[in-house]
Amino acid sequence: MTYLEKIKKTIGEEIFTALEKEADAEVGRNVRYPLQNKWGQDIWYSPTISSVDNVIKYTDYFYKFEELLLKISPLDIINILYRCKLIFAFQTDQEYQRKNSSIIWADEITFSISWKLKEKGVDSLIEDYFERLKTFERTRYLVAATCSFDDLDSNVQHVFKKLFDDLNLPYYCFFQVPEMRKAETELVNKYNYDDKDLQRYFGDKSFGYKEFGSSLYIYWKGIINLRNFLNLIRIKGIIYPPQVDFGQENIKILPPISPIFALEAPRHL
């Protein structure tokens, strides 16, 4: 049984068909999108698949996938179907490249398909990319940097670790290099950072959420869990609001920092 067949059997034909219709609609929006704006400047279509609005729209499907113990998200299915079908919406490679803003292989989310693969046929292509998705299900740490512990007491790491262990929560605190190294050994990608660069990659000090699954599955599940946890300790007064950093000389206003996957790709340090 292929991975695509397994997914269809697990979620049912009705849900899969509904998600496929969303992918077809995304292809249609891309095809109709103009090549230039009213000032004659080139513009590119940006898929709406991973937008917050769509995450809210598919909330029921997210919960259904969770009940079925699937480690992928509904957005994974829509994304693969959209990108595989997009190539068949154009007659020439030139047209396709002009309406396709992704590169041939970025990651499992923003990938693009080479024009020469069109000869495989849409069904075969979709099956191949679902098999590829299966290989990208793995353990990841989604980390959110915090600037609230400038003068860090070494006991803070121990307090949070004990809290997470006692309550059996999938949270981690990366305030010290040994904890960062421990997480690094569990991940697929390793880039041999020295201690200084490793700290910078983890935002110097950060909280993390550990999960197994696809990037989209972990990101949207993790970001909700991290938000809930950070809000709780913010209410308790343990950390500052995310946009304010109380420095030694003045108050510095910073934009909120989105969580990232730890050591998923080399960062320019």
| Strand content bin | 5-15%
Which parts are unreliable, with pLDDT below 50 for 5 consecutive residues or more? 251-256
Please give the largest β-sheet: 4 strands, antiparallel
From the structure provided, what is the oligomeric state, counting identical versus distinct chains?
A: single chain
- Order of helical and strand elements: HHHHHHHEHEHHEHEEE
What's this, in brief?
With 269 residues, the chain is α+β, with helices and mostly antiparallel strands.
Task: Write the SSE topology.
Layout: H1 3-11, H2 13-32, H3 52-57, H4 59-67, H5 74-86, H6 93-99, H7 122-135, E1 138-145, H8 154-166, E2 171-174, H9 177-186, H10 195-201, E3 206-213, H11 215-235, E4 244-246, E5 251-253, E6 260-261
Antiparallel strand pairs: 1-3, 1-6, 2-3, 4-5
Helix pairs in contact: 1-2, 2-5, 5-7
Protein architecture, described:
By secondary structure, the chain is of the alpha+beta class. It folds into two domains: 3-135, no CATH class; 138-261, no CATH class. The chain contains eleven helices and six strands. A four-stranded antiparallel beta sheet has the order 2-3-1-6, sandwiched between helices. Strands 4-5 form a two-stranded antiparallel sheet. Helix 1 packs across helix 2 (13-32), helix 2 packs across helix 5 (74-86) and helix 5 packs across helix 7 (122-135). The longest helix has 21 residues, at 215-235. The model is unreliable at 251-256 (pLDDT under 50).
Looking at this protein, list some descriptive labels.
alpha+beta; 4-stranded antiparallel sheet; 11 helices; 10% strand; globular
